[in-house]
Amino acid sequence: MSDAFQALSRRVLPLAAAVGFALVATPALARGPDGIADVAEKVIDAVVNISTSQTVDAKNNDDKGGDERGNNNRRGANPQLPPDSPFSEFFDEFFKNRRGGPDSKGNSPRKVNSLGSGFIIDADGTVVTNNHVIADADEINVILNDGTKIKAEVIGKDKKSDLAVLKFTPPEKKITAVKFGNSENLRLGEWVIAIGNPFSLGGTVTAGIVSARNRDINSGPYDNYIQTDASINRGNSGGPLFNLDGEVIGVNTAIISPSGGSIGIGFAVPSKTVMAVVDQLRQFKEVRRGWLGVRIQQVTDEIAESLSIKPARGALIAGVDDKGPAKPAGIEPGDVVVKFDGKDIKEMKDLPRAVADSPVGKAVDVVIIRKGKEETRKVTLGRLDDGEKAVEASAKTTSPVETEKPVTQKALGLDLAGLSKDLRTRYKIKDNVKGVIVTGVDSGSDAAEKRLSAGDVIVEVAQEAVTNAADVKKRIDQLKKDGKKSVLLLVSNGSGELRFVALAVK
User: Fold this and answer.
1) CATH architecture for segment(s) 409-504
2) Per the annotation, does 116 bind a ligand?
3) Given this model, what pLDDT does residue 21 score?
């Protein structure tokens, strides 16, 4: 559980260290449009501080590095302030309280307090925040802008989108709630306003612009963040990002920072995603996502050339779950999904998002390219458990020690052999895996670069099944004659998990 704004730690070099520049006097200009103050005044009472407490073992303290996304920032690190700074005493006290005070020694359980942000979306006291703000909390309190502190309960939370919905009983006085706007209408350069609780400094308003949309920061399968340069810091997690109409168009969730402080690169979950997740959490107390039942990988330029797809696009089906919805619909490994339920699939990551956004049980049209031709398949979606599984194209198997050199043929820098009983035992290949086994890979070859290794099994060459090394060599020689620049291999590991690998034909 984190009391602080999640930071993606990266090394960032100062601009002055890379390029020379001269200081030029410029006229003082107002930062942003005049309407920022009006928007802040209208919505600030809907923004709340989230205070949580958790009982932990003393050994699981703040001195361990990292946060929920594997960052190297230490949660216990104080901001670097000059010794004579008027804020030094405040921050010393703040971080001392977070660690449980100066007397929290030994191994006895202790309370850890955390702080984050959230916002009210209706008069009944429903609050939206980040999951990592309240995860594992024993007690959660909502603190209104006037200082009123009220106990809250969790209605539902979703780790994949890092969102949570809370509920508290409003005081007798009327409370302010805010509405969601349409994040799809955001334009690059549009002004936005962030309000939150950085470093326990509640009710903090900052402004900036939309720097980018649809950002993938590798934090999860459904990354689709709004990037902004509005100043957001630790403690802003779960706070709203407003447009100039006072509508919530994002939930501030992560920053890129080498130190934990703002450097002008922050990320917010777009309101389109938030609204869908919040609706399901309020209705079901969980998120129910659609499931296609496939394993996918990126369509690289080499794979696209091998499949005669121009330009490279879509999501390549590397495997189909025997119990999944795609199987009875006739979707097969080697198909490339280019459209799902009317939405273009431009790259691999678009497919899990589109599927997850679709209701369970919905019948959708899936447009695939198979052997150069488009086909449409009707699929009735199941319910997601583990998600559309992305395949690492460079997955590597461990090569066991050989006891006897098998009879092999050479092709594309690979030593190939038939799958004998001895080779199955030596490389731990399951009986249901059929094809031609790789027994060696030339150092420096394209195959080595793509991380093929001894123990991999070639199932298909150019979407045709192969059963012996001669088949593989024959197919490759034919592709060379046809002028192909690369050959597409369907490769299995010993357990039967498939992936596609495109190798250059030389």
Assistant:
1) Roll (2.30)
2) no
3) 40
- Tell me, what amino acid is at 136? D
For 60-114, the pLDDT digits (tens) are: 544 333 333 333 333 444 444 444 444 444 445 445 554 445 454 556 677 777 7
Check if the beta carbon of residue 180 is closer than 8 Å to that of residue 186: no
Q: Which residues contact 97 (CB under 8 A, 6 or more apart)?
A: 113
Can you spell out the DSSP letters for 401-441?
PPSSPPP-EEETTEEEEE--HHHHHHHT--TT--SEEEEEE
CATH class for the region spanning 190-284: mainly beta
**Centroid of chain to Cα 11:** 20
Alpha-carbon gap, residue 434 to 415, rounded angstroms: 17
Say whether 78 counts as a known binding-site residue: no
Domain boundaries, the chain: 190-284, 290-383, 409-504
Report whether 235 belongs to an annotated binding site.
yes
Helix, strand or coil, per DSSP, at residue 440: strand
Other Cβ atoms within 10 Å of 347 Cβ, number = 13
Q: Say which range, 97-111, 150-164, 335-349, has the weakest mean pLDDT.
A: 97-111
What are the pLDDT digits (tens) for 165-204? Answer: 999 999 888 899 999 999 999 999 999 999 999 888 888 9
Percent composition of the chain: helix, strand, coil (DSSP 3-state, to 5): 15, 35, 50
**234 band by pLDDT with thresholds 50, 70 and 90:** confident
Same CATH topology for 190-284 and 409-504: the answer is no
Q: What percent of the chain has pLDDT over 70?
A: 78
Distance, in Å, from the CA atom of 498 to the CA atom of 398, rounded to the nearest integer, reads: 16
Give me 362's structure tokens: 């919905």
* Low-confidence winner among 130-144, 213-227, 376-390, 422-436 (lowest mean pLDDT): 376-390
Fold of the CATH domain 290-383? Pdz3 Domain (2.30.42)
| Cβ neighbour number for residue 63 with a 10 Å cutoff | 11
Give the C-alpha distances (Å, rounded to integers) separating 78 from 92, 191, 233, 254, 272: 7, 31, 13, 19, 35
d(CA 253, CA 239): 8
Strand partners of residue 477: none
Residue 342 among known ligand-binding residues: no
Q: Is 449 helix (H, G, I), strand (E, B) or coil?
A: helix
Half-sphere exposure of 175 (CA within 13 A, CB side): 27
Indicate which residues carry an active-site annotation: 132, 162, 237
∠ Cα 498 500 505 (to 5°): 145
Q: Residue 114, annotated ligand binder?
A: no
SS3 361: coil
Whether pTM exceeds 0.85? no
**Distance separating alpha carbons of residues 213 and 300, to the nearest angstrom:** 23
8 A C-beta contact, residue 239 and residue 255:
no
For 84, phi and psi rounded to 5 degrees?
-95, 10
Separation between Cα atoms, residue 481 and residue 488, nearest integer Å = 15
Which residue has 């649809």 as its token pair? 214
Task: Count, in order, helices (H) and strands (E) of the chain.
Answer: 10, 29
